[in-house]
Amino acid sequence: MYLGIDCGTQGTKVLVWDAERRSVAGAGYAGYHLYSDEHGKKEQHPADWIDAMINATRQALAQAAISPSLIRGIGVSGQQHGLVLLDECDRVIRPAKLWCDTGPAELLAEFERSRFTAPSAPLSDIIGIHVPVAFTLAKLLWVKALEPENYRKIRKIMLPHEYLNFYLTGEYRAECSDASGTGYFDTRRRCWSEEVLDRVDPLRPFSLPKLIRSAEPHGELRPAAAAEMGLDAGIVVASGGGDNMMSAIGTGNISEGQLTMSLGTSGTLFTFTERQIDSRLQPDINAFCSANDGWLPLVSTMNMTNATTAFRQLLNKSLAEFETALSASSPGAGGISCLPYLNGARLPNLPAASASLTGITGHNLNADNLLRAVVEGVSFNLCRGIDILSRCDLRFTRLVVIGGGSNSEGWRQIIANVSGLSVVKSLVTDAGALGGALQAHWCHLNQTVSGACLGDICSLSMLEDDSSIVEPRPERYSRYRELYLAYHQQVDNYKSQWS
Ligand SMILES: Nc1ncnc2c1ncn2[C@@H]1O[C@H](COP(=O)(O)OP(=O)(O)O)[C@@H](O)[C@H]1O
Ligand SMILES: O=C(CO)[C@@H](O)[C@H](O)COP(=O)(O)O
């Protein structure tokens, strides 16, 4: 049995994966607070992630009702890009700035303008990936500029999943797929970019973690962490990875031609490629490394279930009532259109964007239409990614959906009707946690059998819930094409206001 852990933006999910029966034997969840302000701040305390991981692990083990000694390994998936800073005594210096923190947008733009002007190549050419404000580099620039005292104290610098691995093992290491979302990692050569780091600060006070490949272990579970988690010390902790990379493993998206869409706090859409695509003409693609030695071109939106949940809670509706609202309303939400940019936009990259509702009349204003409008808005936004990936000659016929929002059948049907693709739910909604468990299995096997194959582990794991398949309905698809084009026209009309 293996433990898969996913540290998401709203909470940490843990599952006990029974590799023989290929099923989840137990699951646990613990949420945490997101500290925000009106200037784009989005922060969390890394100590809250540790508490949540311990709490959710204990729940999962209790539900599985197994002896902890049956757990052979752990794999950790984590929200990408967050910046965790440790001082010389390995104490956390300040709360982690998260992927969704848009505060450093201007600083990042200024850094690119001033440090990468000709004859220098642009930043994206140097590291092979465009850098939006979500990336760690932006958070580092912010701490350096606004909190110089804290900056001087930094000795170690980590991403969320690396910090959890550091807690579990005591080892300061980083794995390439998550590192590819920092903005100071060369995604072609899979190494830290000294060139970029030197332009941030040639005299930086911290060292970078040792890079490992995804198949390599991060380390062994140390006794103190084992006691807290209720596990045996010494079991293997796999390399882990960014949540999208681990979800790729959890949905079997490890060979070309497959497409996964995550409806979590963020919306993401990604596919595996054997060669890195040239995204110079497609700046909205984040050309990440994958956790199986290839690449994972991905598009991401800033607003997904944060927006649907904000509207749902404002209207005082339960998840069941949200579902009823989707079936009671029609495509186009009676004429109401929602640009859902509560937290700025990442697709297109406009951190200063704000949300809006248009087309409201005395006849169409009701809760069902408002809920449908926000679901359509976030779906139109993310489905744009399919067009963008297609411009790189990537083609798909079906889509696997994951994340909290994928539990909604009405929402899955809207995605199918907008995209024109068959939509199926992942066997385990939290595919990041499943990916962590499958990676731990792979890593554990690698220690005993040479050449253990991740593909075999994934294909044996029945990664989809066949009963959940929804097909696009032709009449709705043509109606949604019109609505989709109108939505993106509306975004284009607003663009100059947010640039
Ligand atoms: N049936 C559902 N319909 C719509 N939204 C849902 C449903 N179930 C869960 N969610 C939403 O999913 C979100 C959590 O998704 P999750 O993928 O766990 O997020 P994260 O990984 O970012 O923490 C919550 O906002 C929750 O309200
Ligand atoms: O920034 C990205 C991807 O580049 C986000 O996908 C984060 O990785 C957060 O994930 P969720 O908490 O929404 O799952």
From TrEMBL:
Group of enzyme by EC: transferase
Span of domain Carbohydrate kinase FGGY N-terminal: 1-250
Coiled coil: none
Its EC number(s): 2.7.1.17
Record field: catalytic activity: D-xylulose + ATP = D-xylulose 5-phosphate + ADP + H(+)
Entry protein name: Xylulose kinase
Pfam families, sorted: FGGY_C, FGGY_N
GO molecular function per UniProt: ATP binding; D-xylulokinase activity
InterPro entries: ATPase_NBD (IPR043129), Carb_kinase_FGGY (IPR000577), Carb_kinase_FGGY_CS (IPR018483), FGGY_C (IPR018485), FGGY_Carb_Kinase (IPR050406), FGGY_N (IPR018484), Xylulokinase (IPR006000)
Record domain Carbohydrate kinase FGGY C-terminal: where: 260-441
GO biological process: D-xylose metabolic process; xylulose metabolic process
UniProt cross-references to CDD domains, sorted A to Z: ASKHA_NBD_FGGY_BaXK-like
Family per similarity comment: Belongs to the FGGY kinase family.
UniProt xrefs under NCBIfam families: XylB
Keywords of this entry: ATP-binding, Carbohydrate metabolism, Kinase, Nucleotide-binding, Transferase, Xylose metabolism
